[in-house]
Amino acid sequence: MAEGNHLRLQGEITSGIRLRFNETELQRICDNNISNAIKYAFEESTVVVRLFSDLQKGVVLEVESVGEPIQEPEKLFERYYREHRSRGGFGIGLHIVKDICQKYGVQTEVISENGVNIFRYIFKDIHENTVA
Questions:
Q1: How many domains does the chain have?
Q2: Helices 93-104 & 23-40 angle (0-180, nearest 10)
């Protein structure tokens, strides 16, 4: 899908990070965010996936893309909400992600500035939660 949209994928993954988390639900968070970034990014841009540890916050997963500014970031995780109806989808993917995050106490942040959109997930207490 990224190749079809003429996008570059870039990973900035810190090695050695471990997080104890349900593998299927973590995969759902990653898959939904990366596929959304690919779907909504401008052609010829780069989608960046970051995973790093912040001693103050915990383990941080970010998916960054360049595209249309997000108009209502506070609504993105609502069931059936879609900012771009022409792009397809049912508006439930981020709602499922929100449910998973609430279940495990994962903090979510959406930043949209100057055409750069970042979805950030903070997995707290890295001493107890160790991603293979």
A1: 1
A2: 140
**Token pair belonging to 109:** 């942040």
The 10 Å CB-count burial string (b at 16+, else e) for 30-56 is: bebbbbbbbbbbeeebebbbbbeeeee
Q: Could you tell me if residue 130 is inside a domain?
A: no
pTM confidence score: 0.86
* Cα dihedral 15, 98, 25, 39 in deg (nearest 10): -70
Which pLDDT tens digits describe the chain residue by residue (132 residues)?
A: 788 888 999 999 999 998 889 999 999 999 999 999 999 999 999 999 999 998 888 999 999 999 999 988 888 888 877 776 555 566 788 999 999 999 999 999 999 999 999 999 999 864 444 444
Q: Cα-flanking dihedrals φ and ψ of residue 82, to 5°?
A: -140, 130
First to last CA, the chain: 26
Q: State the CB neighbour count (10 A cutoff) for residue 106.
A: 22
The residue segments making up the domain with residue 81 are 8-123
How many angstroms separate the CA atoms of 83 and 111, rounded?
A: 15
